[in-house]
Amino acid sequence: MPAAQGKLDRSHKGEPMPVISLSDPSGESLDLTSLKGKPVLVNLWATWCAPCVEELPTLNTLIGREDELGVTVLPISQDAGQPGKVVEILRRRKLDNVEPWIDEEADLSFQYGGNLPVTILFDANGKEVWRWTGGNDWTSAEALKLIAEAKS
Fold first, then answer.
1. Adjacent-strand bridge partners of 75
2. Among 36, 68, 103, 133, which residue has the fewest nearby CB atoms (within 10 Å)?
3. Is pTM, for the whole model, over 0.70?
4. From the centroid of its chain, how far is CA 146?
């Protein structure tokens, strides 16, 4: 994957994490705000978004390093009403660390500008640090430096 193809935006620094409930194909739910207490890297993606699917392997790798990085990595599909497609693409691409969380109403993609992929870093208090619009290699040195900002 080419290095950074996106744009860093710090203009929303300090904004609170959205109050939203996610679901998975088995019917489990997750309130995003329940993750406060540890930095969270949220990635909004969709099966029909080529740059999203291209960067998923780097997020899969990051999830495997969560303890080391001190950050929860949470890819959230914007494929409303299509949980089967989400599970299929994750399985086919062997992205075993990525859980199939889905924003059923695609509210987050509207809230964060509608262009996917979008990645938002929240600090341990649930406040936005920065957002990145566009694809990225989230395992690159540059990306890891950005992610480390959640702890400062």
1. 43
2. 68
3. yes
4. 14
Q: Residue 134 has which token pair?
A: 């566009």
**Per-residue pLDDT tens for 41-85?**
999 999 999 999 999 999 999 999 999 999 999 999 999 888 999
Per the CB < 8 A criterion, the answer to whether 129 and 12 are in contact is: no
Condensed to tens digits (0 to 9), the pLDDT of residues 106-130 reads 889 888 987 899 999 999 999 999 9
Range 18-24, long-range pairs (CB < 8 A, 24+ positions): 18/107, 18/108, 18/111, 20/103, 20/107, 20/108, 22/76, 22/101, 22/102, 22/103, 22/104, 23/101, 23/102, 23/104, 24/83, 24/99, 24/100, 24/101, 24/102
Question: What are the structure tokens assigned to 60, written together?
Answer: 């899969």
CB-CB contact of 84 with 25 (8 Å): yes
Q: Do the beta carbons of residue 140 and residue 1 sit within 8 Å?
A: no
**Does an H or E element contain 62, and which?**
helix 50-63
